[in-house]
Design brief:
With about 220 residues, the chain is mainly alpha-helical. It contains six helices and no strands.
Length: about 220
């Protein structure tokens, strides 16, 4: 939040410097320019510190859900059969993708908190300077928000289909490893490969659609 808000401070300092020059002030406002420089140095120092903090947070966000899920499966009381919504092979994508998606939500909201607060203050300042110009600037922003909201249900549907297709592939691989002797004994290698290619082709189709949706949203 400090990193995203600090450009507003720079803007305020630059305004004061320009007001000083416009009003015919004596000399160059060195103190204001020094304050601008100090603010920028502080801003990028905050970013370096934040990046260091984020690395530990990112590792924790990805690790803690995986550790907790594995602990539940390995040491929790009662049967483990119903604790994951799929096969043991599908658990690979659960441990990998679900925890990553949770971490991405947290990471996105970190930036959204800072940029959102900065945007609110910036919009207020813009309206105080020139309401008509601010309104014109907000029109494309409003259209982008409306389009994003309208795309939401479709994008979520595409993401669910992608996750199901990925889980199908990982589940099939896991089940095949578990029953590899049966596959070899039955001479079913060709059938296995044919089914594997079908699952991968379906996964590729859903993944392309999901990627396209994400790029449209961006």
């Amino acid at each position: 939040t400090l990193f995203h808000m600090s450009p507003l401070v720079v803007g305020a300092l630059v305004k004061l410097a320009l007001d000083h020059l416009t009003a015919g002030g004596d000399g160059t406002p060195w103190m204001l320019l020094a304050a601008v420089l100090g603010t920028e140095v502080t801003r990028w120092s905050v970013l370096i510190w934040s990046a260091w903090q984020w690395q530990g947070a990112w590792t924790g966000w990805n690790s803690v859900p995986r550790v907790n899920a594995l602990t539940s499966l390995a040491t929790g009381k009662g049967p483990t059969a119903g604790r994951l919504p799929g096969s043991s092979g599908e658990a690979v994508s659960r441990f990998r993708d679900d925890s990553h998606d949770l971490a991405m939500v947290l990471d996105s909201w970190l930036d959204m908190a800072g940029t959102g607060l900065a945007a609110i203050v910036a919009i207020v300042v813009m309206f105080a300077v020139d309401a008509k110009a601010a309104a014109i600037v907000l029109i494309p922003m409003g259209l982008a928000v409306a389009l994003s909201l309208s795309l939401g249900p479709r994008l979520r549907s595409w993401r669910r289909q992608t996750r199901l297709a990925t889980s199908g592939v990982t589940s099939f691989i896991g089940d095949t490893f578990a029953g590899v002797l049966a596959v070899k004994a039955a001479g079913a290698e060709d059938s296995f490969l044919r089914r594997f290619r079908q699952l991968n082709a379906h996964r590729a189709e859903t993944s392309r659609r999901d990627q396209m949706g994400r790029q449209i949203l961006n």
